[in-house]
Structure formats: C-alpha cells, structure tokens
Specification:
This protein has about 550 residues and is of the alpha+beta class. Helices cover about 50% and strands about 10% of the residues. The chain has 4 domains: about 1-150, Nucleotidyltransferase, domain 5 (2-Layer Sandwich); about 185-280, Up-down Bundle (Taq DNA Polymerase, Chain T, domain 4); about 295-345 and about 475-550, Alpha-Beta Plaits, CATH 3.30.70; about 350-470, DNA polymerase, domain 1, CATH 1.10.150. Helix 3 runs parallel beside helix 5. The protein binds a DNA duplex (12 and 16 nucleotides) through helix 9, helix 10, helix 11, strand 10 and helix 16.
DNA sequence: GATACGGGCCAC
DNA sequence: AAACGTGGCCCGTATC
C-alpha cells in the first residue's frame, strides 16, 4: 500500500491511498500517519515530495515510519540517469515538465532548515507547484510517472533499489539528526580548556593561542596575525626562509624557531574555530541527565546524496568531520552503550566485487585486504595500499607509477574496470555506479579548449569518473546497509526505547546508541544487515565486507 | 556591510 | 613526499 501525503502547514494535511481510495483530509497529520503505520498488515510506503519538509516534524511528534518514496531524491536519480543532472527535481519541477509548463528552480535550503530547525508544524509549502494546484493530485501523478520511468529502464532493478534505500536514507537522516550523537559537554569543555586555556570572552583569542601568537611575533621580530597566510609568508621571507605557501607540510621543513610555533598555532586555532565553544553552542543540545551529569547531543543536518557520488553531506556543524581530537567527548549516556561499526577497506572491496577480478576478490575475502595484497605484490603492506589507492584515485606521480604496473599485471580486471571508467571521463562520457547512479558531465565540456588547458580538464574528469565507479558504489553499499539496519532495529522485541538506534553515519561508519543490555542485539543486527547488504548487492561474490564492530561507552575507544 | 573567492585543514 | 577522489567550514582578503 502506498499513501501519498501532503501537509497543510497548520498541523493537518491530506492523505490518499494510491490507486484505490479518495483523498482524505486529516486534522492531525502526525496522528493520522501513526494510526496507519501501526495498522495491521505490511507497513505502508509513504509517498512525499521531500523528506526534509515532512519527516522531521513527524519524528518530533514521536512518529516513525518504516518505508517511503521520496519523489525529490528519486527524480534526481532518474534525471541523472538521463544525463540531465542540472535540471530541477522538486515536485513542482517534475509536474511542470509533465504539463509542458515553465519549470521552477528548486528551493534553496539553508543551514538550520532541516531536522535541526525549530518545530514548524509541517511548515510552508516547499513543493514549487503553481499556487492553487491540487498538491496531492500532483504528487500522485508524479509518483506514477516515476514508477513508470523506473520500470522502463533496462537496468531498472538497480535504480529501483537505489531509490528505495535512498528514500529510507531520508528517514534515517531525520531520525539521527533528531536523536543526535551523544557528546558530553563537560568533557568537550575539559578537552578544549586543556588545549586552549579557559573559554575566552566572545571574539577574543584563547590564552594559549594568544601566547603562541606573541611568541611567533617575537621569533620573527614583528607582530603578525598567524591566521593570515600572506603575513606569515612575508615575515618568513624577511627572516631568510622564503616559502611557497604556509601549508603544514611546507612549514614542517622550515628550520626556524617560528615554524613549530606556527604549526601548533594552526592546529589549535582550527580546533577552536571549527569545533570550539561556539560550535557546541550552535550544534550541541544539552539537558540534565542522571546524577547531575549534563548530557549533550550533536545534531548535524544531513543532506542525503548531497555529494555527486551519492555520499551524504551535512549542512552546518561540520557533521562529517568530527575531529579525532574531540571524539573522547562522544560518550554513551549512563547505562547505555555506543556500538560503532566501521566498514574497513570498503572501496577496494567494492572494486573487487564490481570488476569480478578473481585475484583481488581472493584478497578481499580476507579480513585485511592490504596485507594479502602485500603478499601478492611482494612488498610491504603500506606500498600495496598506496598502489591500490593510486589505481582508484588516478595518482600517477611519485611512488605510484611502478606500483601501478604491478597492480595492472596482478589484478587486470580490476584495473581495467577503473581504467575504462577513466577513459570514458576523458572522452566526456558518463559512467554509472553498480546500481545505476550516473556521473554528471562537466559544465562547458563541448567548448573545452584544445591544448594543455583542455588536456588538464580532460585528465581531471578521467580521475573523477575513475573514482566515481568505486566511490558511488561504496556509497550504495552504505545506503543499503543503513536501510537494512533500520529495518532490523525496528523489528527488535521488545522495542528499543525512545532515542535508541543509529545516531551517526559517515560514509562507511555507523554509530548506535542503545541501552547497555541491548548492545549485543544491536551488534547482531549490524552483522545481519551486512549479510543482507552483501547478498542484495553482490550475490555469489566471494568478496567480504568485514564490519569492525566495537561496543564501548566512548567513541574514541576503538 | 554584504558578498565572493582562495588558502588551508578537517573528515572519509 | 606532498596533486590523488569526494566534500565542509573558517579565515583573510578583495571587491562592490
């Protein structure tokens, strides 16, 4: 059963069971969705324009659903598959194309508009439909059109699966953003104070940074702002140490007393500006916990498939770059546990699976793929890893060249897979992931200049498509895993308490926060989700995707 | 005062 | 040792 749903902006909305029933007006949308979700029988698939506009409000109202069809995410996949990445994909745009009307631009979403935003009672209409249009009818029409287009594809199975798991990703994103990653404010504070000194008044440099800046000035015989690359370069040049840039690896080679001070300053300044006290105030919610502890939750705004490869992005808060120095502050609540599952060496394993390279698959059947590669290559593990990464990223300089030759001989099908993708990119053609996500063609390709400049662009596009076939498929593996894990966690008996489940996701890693006595079940659910993912994506392949799963009260304990 | 852009560094 | 893919974000600087 599929139920189309639109909100009225006042807490109510309209529902329609597609194909059979008539539209129905409901005064309380959350209650209506909850009732139908909890009804006997298989769960409905909720059809809506964009998860960001509806589901965060449902989650805030305590409602969770199991399945959805997100027309905006699906449309982006369909358009991309057709080589039309740049065309708008919101509901109004699809409807306009169906009716030969002018196509509206997609709405611009700003920081703080997603799950992190204040309750909005199923906010204003973001569909971009013309005023007065029957939104429910338009949604049903667009849904039917998308189903038809998906079925018409020759490789429809892949893209249908991708649309389904990506829609589920929207559900997971809203739920994770709502629940948040547990982060203890007091520990975060302690880490910052140890490194930077006590919290300064707004706009001031913390004591440690101010001291470093002064010592840098002394060492270079002039006052300067260490945050200004041009000032630093000028001062170093005057001191007899000209540098081409102030990048850390450049500074590391400079033999001047100011260099180590500058490096330390840059490291700490970044921590302060990117993840300091101001960051915590904006992105980490706080509430009292048992025994007087303050409990915090980091709430990033996820952007599902926000990256061309289908990886997720985040909007604000730097959600995908929680620095290692800070992970000690990520702690389970008292009596709860963090379950962290990390897919190690995901991309080379994906390459082994999609290329069907038997030798690489044999290595990918091992727990440590790179160690086995080293045996094949006859060198050490680090060199084997460099060679593999060079093949997937398109590196040609430095150490990589001789290693690549070895790789090409040992893993011909794997290398042919990425080389073929690279050639497509260099020739301006698109490539597809395992499930059918399609690479965009670069802007202005047809007017590319001949000669060096054009060649550089062509080679860069080759590296992009070379990497796309691997990275985009790895992102699909992660999406399927997340969707499968969500389903399994929802099926646990007795149900997990409010706020328990997946609380963080970044590319190839998930973090779950569960009551300590449910951690074993959570670990089992992760393992089962991995098996299901592998069987769904690569049935019969010997490639393994080992998930390193750790249970602790702390994120940094690995 | 707002905006655009590049440098630099964080993550996977 | 430092060009090799995808990003986000802060800062300084230039510009309107």
């Amino acid at each position: 059963m599929r139920i189309a749903v639109v909100a009225d902006g006042e807490g109510g909305g309209w529902l329609q069971e597609l194909g059979t029933a008539r539209p129905e007006r409901v005064p309380d949308l959350a209650e209506a969705v909850r009732d139908r979700e909890n009804a006997a029988g298989p769960p409905p698939r909720w059809v809506w324009d964009a998860w960001e506009d509806l589901y965060p409000d449902l989650v805030r109202a305590g409602v969770r659903v199991r399945r959805s069809h997100d027309t905006a995410l699906t449309e982006a996949l369909l358009l991309g598959h057709d080589g039309r990445h740049e065309e708008p994909h919101s509901l109004g745009a699809v409807w306009a194309r169906l009716h030969g009307r002018p196509v509206p631009d997609d709405p611009v979403r700003r920081t703080g508009e997603g799950a992190h935003a204040q309750p909005a009672l199923f906010g204003a209409d973001r569909s971009t439909l013309p005023p007065g249009t029957d939104r429910l009818a338009a949604l049903a029409e667009v849904h039917d059109d998308q189903v038809r287009r998906l079925e018409a594809l020759t490789d429809s199975g892949g893209l249908r699966l991708l649309a389904a798991v990506e829609s589920a990703g929207g559900l997971a994103a809203a739920e994770m953003s709502h629940d948040g990653l547990p982060l203890r404010p007091d520990i975060h504070d302690r880490l910052l104070t140890e490194l930077l000194g006590p919290r300064p008044v707004a706009g001031q440099r913390p004591a440690v940074l101010a001291d470093l800046a002064a010592r840098i000035g002394d060492a270079l015989d002039q006052e300067l702002n260490p945050d200004s690359p041009s000032q630093v370069m000028r001062a170093l040049a005057r001191a007899g140490h000209p540098v081409p840039s102030t990048r850390s690896w450049v500074l590391r080679e400079v033999e001047h007393p100011a260099a180590p001070l500058l490096l330390r300053y840059k490291e700490l300044a970044r921590l302060h500006s990117a993840n300091g006290w101001a960051w915590r105030e904006q992105w980490v919610s706080e509430r009292p916990g048992p025994g007087g502890v303050r409990l915090g939750r980091f709430h990033p705004d996820y952007v599902v498939a926000g990256v061309v490869s289908g990886r997720w992005a985040t909007r604000g808060g730097g959600g995908l770059q929680v620095p290692k120095a800070l992970r000690g502050a990520v702690r389970a609540d008292p009596g709860w546990a963090l379950v962290r599952a990390d897919a190690g060496q995901l991309e080379p394993r994906v390459l082994a699976a999609v290329s069907g390279d038997l030798a690489l698959a044999e290595a990918a059947a091992e727990e440590d793929l790179y160690a086995r590669l080293a045996v094949h290559v006859g060198g050490d593990r680090d060199r084997a890893k460099i060679g593999m990464l060079a093949a997937m990223y398109g590196q040609t300089t430095g150490d990589a060249a001789p290693l690549l030759a070895t790789m090409r001989r040992l893993y011909p099908r794997a290398l042919d897979h990425v080389d073929t993708a690279a050639r497509a990119g260099e020739e301006g053609r698109a490539v597809r992931s395992w499930l059918g996500r399609t690479s965009p063609r670069p802007h202005g390709w047809d007017t590319l200049p001949s000669g060096t400049e054009g060649d550089r662009t062509r080679r860069a596009q080759g590296r992009f498509t070379r990497n796309f076939v691997v990275q985009a498929t790895a992102a699909e593996w992660a999406s399927v895993l997340l969707a499968a894990l969500r389903v399994r966690l929802a099926r646990l008996e007795p149900a997990l308490p409010e706020g328990a489940g997946v609380v963080f996701f970044v590319h190839d890693e998930v973090v779950l926060h569960v009551p300590a006595d449910r951690a074993e079940e959570a670990v089992r659910a992760v393992a089962e989700a991995e098996r299901e993912t592998r069987e769904l994506l690569f049935p019969g392949s010997p490639v393994r995707f080992p998930l390193v799963t750790t249970v602790s009260d702390e994120h940094s304990q690995i």
